């Protein structure tokens, strides 16, 4: 029995600007990043290279488990960090990377750079994508908290990163030289005084702190790093927006206006049902408005580049909202009930594609749900989302990308699990295992039709495969892999008093 | 097998039930009940800290346009029944304009009520028991005012002054014996986590004043993210506060005061050149503060400020004015 191949977690079509005009498909699977020729599906490069690429191990075995962090980065957090970097890895023989998967992947508008997030080490990595499709890592920047969204500003020069702590940072695409701020060492002084604490026990512990501090000072002073130092990052960055919630998605939108050359906005969504509209950098501290209309956590925002006045948002509340976001106005509420078979649907992805067809350019919105093989398609007509043909995929939809120049989309699918389930593994995947499906769009009587096509891009990637999962996996290891691909269910709230 | 609730809790529940019955009895205008008891704090105490990051079971409106304020300010309900909120509730004649974030037992609201009798003010508190107390307190004050206005005043106040020294429980604060402007119809309290849900309650530029009085200092460095003042939250305060509106802060912790200053004012020219949220705030001068009666109420009439006074603690006041939004940089 052939063992399962790592499914493609992210896929991204890239068309480089002239003179090269190269077309590539960049994909992540397991701990690797792959580059393929978009026309033939020919394998071009893999990153990282110095790793045995044909066997992947279960995430519990070698990769460090997902860190269960406390909410803040205090003294405990620091120690944890130190431990993580100094502790010898269990698998001392092999040189395994510190991450088990690459959950976010994006590219620059000119197609020259690939930006990827490696999961457990929270590193944003920027790659140069050569004309021959080779990936060259230019920089890696470790963020303080696990990023949940990475986008580029409309000028393509700055990365915006939203994280699970509710913060959004801006960092230059290409990091320059960074001079770390030198901060004077300050003696530790408790902020509380006998005048501000009142209970007997608190007064006692305050006294203990004072005695400890005195002792430490006598012994030459054991340095107690200040909180600023601990969180300081050794590269240029700026905290631009903060939510007191989990930040789930972030997009940067340029909205053309009548008189001015157009205004930049940053839209952020959180687990507490908010969509915040802020000005673009450097004025992102000014909140222009909120778009309030969801009744459960939000997972995805999408503003089509071909119609930036619209916003489509979705999450855990069984409907999509179409917004005129410049006025915080809900144009349409599209119920998912009846459209999909998933009982408690969570929107996994919303994509706006613009596909070149012989006759015209087809503009469509595609929506996938967590753990579902159905792919909904819509067009936007007169301020409404009009439902089109629903695409049935071979397995749960993981990601997709428009192959713009050929009027098609490439959809990465999970054929390890039963379609419609995030945890029921098949006994066998069939050979070759389908990783990618290819659909061609056509317009028939004012409506969109999607036709599955045996394109060399999909067939050659499917037959080449990625890296194999271990043949034997116990339930716990399987659960580990499930949790990598399907992360949205945990966002649902279990309210208590 | 279920264990019976501890006696303390049973006592609390009984007390609150009786209080509720008392209020209900007063709903009947013919009821001949002479005295209105103020609620006692000891039945409403709750641990001083709440985790703002956890998912409390909270009620909050979908948006400010959905918020039902009618039960909070019945005297201000628009008589036109055709006017309703997006949630279908009756509309008010005016919007809430003043917010006390972390209102505690409501001392500030009670102190401000007669000063700004035509302004609707709301206290927001995350601790449910404490908020229950505020609601009961406002309710009792309103009934007292009603009785005073109805002429039972003379009798009641005579009675009150007779046994005032003898029977007023030290814990049972705030009884009034005179008619005050606004009759406390302009204040109320609401349970909310403002760090998460402020924009659900208030629209852009709706507020004229925000108070943050003696906030939880969260002394430990790793708890600083839970502080009610931060650059991120200051952006939200600027969103709900109108240009020219005021942000009042007071604390007894010097380090926290500096924290507040640091998060509203630029600390260096270099920082100012970079720009940021501090562009939107300017500190209000000492002279202006001396003339502002709200500062006096904040400094001397809230429960915490009295506690600090008793303990001979320091009080650090800082008030910031929200400036107009700068021009767009495309």
UniProtKB/TrEMBL annotation, chain A:
Keywords: Nucleus, Repeat, tRNA processing, WD repeat. The keyword Nucleus applies. Pfam families: WD40. The keyword Repeat applies. Its main location: nucleus. Residues 51-97 are annotated as: Disordered. Pathway: tRNA modification; N(7)-methylguanine-tRNA biosynthesis. Required for the formation of N(7)-methylguanine at position 46 (m7G46) in tRNA. In the complex, it is required to stabilize and induce conformational changes of the catalytic subunit. This is Transfer RNA methyltransferase 82. It comes from Penicillium argentinense.
TrEMBL record, chain B:
Pathway: tRNA modification; N(7)-methylguanine-tRNA biosynthesis. Its EC number is 2.1.1.33. One of its GO terms (molecular function) is tRNA (guanine(46)-N7)-methyltransferase activity. It is found in: Nucleus. It catalyses: guanosine(46) in tRNA + S-adenosyl-L-methionine = N(7)-methylguanosine(46) in tRNA + S-adenosyl-L-homocysteine. Residues 152-172 are annotated as: Disordered. S-adenosyl-L-methionine binds at residues 102, 125-126, 193-194, 213, 302-304. Its main location: nucleus. Residues 153-166 have a biased composition (Low complexity). It comes from the Eukaryota. GO terms for cellular component: nucleus; tRNA methyltransferase complex. Keywords: Methyltransferase, Nucleus, RNA-binding, S-adenosyl-L-methionine, Transferase, tRNA processing, tRNA-binding. The active site is at 216. Gene3D superfamilies: Vaccinia Virus protein VP39. Forms a complex with TRM82. Belongs to the class I-like SAM-binding methyltransferase superfamily. TrmB family. Catalyzes the formation of N(7)-methylguanine at position 46 (m7G46) in tRNA. This is tRNA (guanine-N(7)-)-methyltransferase. It comes from Penicillium argentinense. The lineage of its organism: Eukaryota, Fungi, Dikarya, Ascomycota, Pezizomycotina. The gene is TRM8.
């Amino acid at each position: 029995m052939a063992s399962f191949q790592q499914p493609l977690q992210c896929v991204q079509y890239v068309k480089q600007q002239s003179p090269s005009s190269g077309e590539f498909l960049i994909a992540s699977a397991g701990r690797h990043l792959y580059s393929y020729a978009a026309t033939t599906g020919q394998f071009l490069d893999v990153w990282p290279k110095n790793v045995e690429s044909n066997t992947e191990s279960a995430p519990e075995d070698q990769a460090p488990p997902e860190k269960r962090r406390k909410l803040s980065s205090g003294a405990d957090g620091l120690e944890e960090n130190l431990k993580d970097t100094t502790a010898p890895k269990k698998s001392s023989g092999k040189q395994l990377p510190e991450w088990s998967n690459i959950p976010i992947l994006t590219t620059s508008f000119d197609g020259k750079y690939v930006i990827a997030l490696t999961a457990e080490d929270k590193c944003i990595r920027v790659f140069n994508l050569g004309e021959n499709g080779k990936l060259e890592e230019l920089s890696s920047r470790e963020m303080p908290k696990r990023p949940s969204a990475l986008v580029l500003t409309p000028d393509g020069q700055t990365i915006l990163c939203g994280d699970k702590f509710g913060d959004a940072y801006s960092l230059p695409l290409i990091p320059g030289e960074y001079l770390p701020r030198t901060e004077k060492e300050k003696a530790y002084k408790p902020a509380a005084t006998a005048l501000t604490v009142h209970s007997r026990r608190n007064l006692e512990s305050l006294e203990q702190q004072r005695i400890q501090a005195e002792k430490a000072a006598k012994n030459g002073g054991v340095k107690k790093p200040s909180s600023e130092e601990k969180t300081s990052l050794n590269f240029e960055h700026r905290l631009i927006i903060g939510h007191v919630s989990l930040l789930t998605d972030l997009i940067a939108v340029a909205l053309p206006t009548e008189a001015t050359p157009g205004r930049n906005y940053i839209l952020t969504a959180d687990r507490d049902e908010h969509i915040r509209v802020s000005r673009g950098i450097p004025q992102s501290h000014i909140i222009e408005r909120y778009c309030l209309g969801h009744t459960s956590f939000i997972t995805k925002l999408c503003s089509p580049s071909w119609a930036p006045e619209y916003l489509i948002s979705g999450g855990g509340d069984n409907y999509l909202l179409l917004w005129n976001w410049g006025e915080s106005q809900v144009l349409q509420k599209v119920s998912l009930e009846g459209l999909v078979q998933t009982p408690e649907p969570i929107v996994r992805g919303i994509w706006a594609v613009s596909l070149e067809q012989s006759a015209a350019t087809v503009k469509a919105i595609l929506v996938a749900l967590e753990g579902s093989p159905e792919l909904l398609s819509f067009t936007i007509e007169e301020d409404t989302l009009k439902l089109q043909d629903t695409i049935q995929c071979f397995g749960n939809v993981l990601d997709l990308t428009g192959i713009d120049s050929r009027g098609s989309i490439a959809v990465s699918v999970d054929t390890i699990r039963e379609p419609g389930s995030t945890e029921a593994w098949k006994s066998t995947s069939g050979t070759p295992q389908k990783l990618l499906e290819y659909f061609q769009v056509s317009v028939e009587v004012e409506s969109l039709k999607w036709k599955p096509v045996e394109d060399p891009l999909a067939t050659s990637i499917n037959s080449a495969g990625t890296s194999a999962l271990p043949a034997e996996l116990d339930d716990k290891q399987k659960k580990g892999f499930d949790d990598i691909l399907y992360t949205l269910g945990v966002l649902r709230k279990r309210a208590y008093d | 097998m279920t264990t019976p609730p501890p006696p303390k809790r049973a006592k609390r529940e009984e007390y609150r039930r009786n209080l509720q019955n008392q209020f209900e009895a007063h709903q009947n205008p013919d009821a001949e009940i002479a005295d209105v008891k103020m609620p006692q704090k000891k039945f409403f105490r709750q641990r001083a800290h709440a985790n703002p990051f956890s998912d409390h079971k909270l009620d909050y409106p979908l948006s400010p346009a959905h918020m039902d304020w009618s039960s909070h300010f019945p005297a201000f309900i628009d008589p036109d029944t055709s006017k309703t909120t997006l949630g279908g509730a009756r509309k008010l004649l005016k919007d809430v304009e003043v917010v006390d974030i972390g209102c505690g037992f409501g001392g500030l609201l009670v102190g401000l009520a007669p000063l700004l009798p035509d302004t609707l003010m709301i206290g927001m508190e995350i601790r449910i028991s404490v908020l229950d107390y505020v609601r009961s307190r406002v309710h009792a004050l309103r009934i007292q005012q009603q009785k005073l206005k109805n002429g039972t005043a003379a009798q009641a106040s005579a009675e009150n002054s007779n046994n005032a020294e003898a029977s007023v429980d030290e814990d049972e604060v705030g009884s009034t014996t005179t008619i005050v402007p606004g009759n406390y119809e302009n204040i109320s309290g609401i349970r909310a986590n403002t760090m998460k849900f402020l924009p659900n309650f208030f629209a852009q530029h709706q507020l004229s004043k925000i108070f943050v009085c003696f906030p939880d200092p969260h002394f430990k460095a790793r708890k600083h993210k839970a502080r009610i003042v931060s650059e991120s939250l200051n952006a939200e305060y600027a969103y709900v506060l109108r240009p020219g509106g005021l942000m009042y802060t007071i604390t007894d912790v010097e380090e926290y005061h500096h924290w507040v200053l640091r998060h509203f004012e630029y600390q260096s020219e270099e920082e100012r050149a970079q720009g940021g949220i501090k562009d939107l705030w300017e500190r209000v001068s000492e002279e202006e503060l001396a003339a502002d009666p709200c500062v006096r109420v904040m400094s001397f009439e809230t429960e915490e400020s009295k506690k600090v006074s008793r303990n001979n603690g320091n009080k650090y006041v800082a008030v910031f004015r929200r400036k107009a939004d700068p021009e767009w940089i495309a």
